Amino acid sequence: xxxxxxxxxxxxxxxxxxxxxxxxxxxxxxxxxxxxxxxxxxxxxxxxxxxxxxxxxxxxxxxxxxxxxxxxxxxxxxxxxxxxxxxxxxxxxxxxxxxxxxxxxxxxxxxxxxxxxxxxxxxxxxxxxxxxxxxxxxxxxxxxxxxxxxxxxxxxxxxxxxxxxxxxxxxxxxxxxxxxxxxxxxxxxxxxxxxxxxxxxxxxxxxxxxxxxxxxxxxxxxxxxxxxxxxxxxxxxxxxxxxxxxxxxxxxxxxxxxxxxxxxxxxxxxxxxxxxxxxxxxxxxxxxxxxxxxxxxxxxxxx
Length: 303
Hints:
303 residues; 14 helices
C-alpha cells in the first residue's frame, strides 16, 4: 500500500474527517445539555431601579463590586451608571450618610449625644428606673446599633427580631436584656403595642437559665457533696471552725428559700420573729430602689 493512502479515506484527507466527527459530537452534546439546563436564554437586562437599589444596599458605585453582587458584567453596570443623574446618586449617598453612625458615634458617649437617644434617656428617667438598669438598656441599644451598623432612628422591628434570634442561637450571654431593651425602645419611642413585638419574636420572657424560669436545680447528691466539701474546708480553718453551724445553716437557707446571697447577707438577727408558730426572718430583696424594695418573710430551717 502506498504511504500516501494512509492519509486518505474515501478520497478525503483523514484529518478533515476527524474534524467533522468532532464537530458533530459537540453539537450533539450542546443539544442534550440545553434540554436539561434551567433558565434557557439570556438573563434579564439590569434595570435602573435594580441598580439604584443595589447602590443603596451596598453603599458603592464601583462597577466591579456591584457586578459581584448583581452577577452581571461590570461593563453593563458602567453603562447603566451613566444613565443615572449624578444628583440622584448624591442624594442616595446623603441618605445613607444620615442613616449610618458617624465615627464619633461608635463610642457609647458619642452615641448618647444623638437626639433620639437623649429623648429615650428622658423617657426612661420618667419611669423611675435605677441608674444601673437604665444604663443597661441604653448600652443594649448601642450594642444593637453597632452590630447592625444602623442609626437608632432607622432600627426596624424585623432587623431587631433577626438579631435577637441570632443571639439566642449563639447563646450570647444577656440576650434577654437585649430583648427587654428593644421592647422599651419601640414601645416608648414609637408606641408599638407589646403584642405586636411578642408576635415578632421580641417577647418579654427571661432566659430559662435565670430566675423563676431556671430549669437546672441541684440534686440531692450534688447538695450533699457540696456540704461535705464545705465541712472539710471549715474544719481545716481554725478561725471558722467554731462557726460550722452558721455555715451549714446558710447553705440550707439559701437552697430552700431561694433567697439571693446579697439579701441574705444584709439580713439582721433582729429581723427574726415568730410567725404562726414558725420562726421567720424578714429580708429585703428586689424591686425598684426609688419605690422601695420588697419585703419577704423567709422560713428558717429547723422549725
